Input
Amino acid sequence: MTLLDALDGQEYIIKQINTDDEELNAFLFSLGCYVGEPVTVVSHLKGGCVVSIKDGRYNIDNQLASAIEI
Output
């Protein structure tokens, strides 16, 4: 299941991030988005979703949301 399939307001644990882009992996890590970290989908938008990770909220697009397995 990916972030695109997640229910709004429910907390999930990140199981895997499927991307081969090292810069993107480093960026996600800097946000606190890595395997084992809890993530909550605040809301789904037309082009992506808003997620809450640690103390921040981030808008991520559908392509990235589909790469994050929960």
Notes: The first strand starts at residue 11 and ends at 13. Helices lie at 22-31, 62-67.
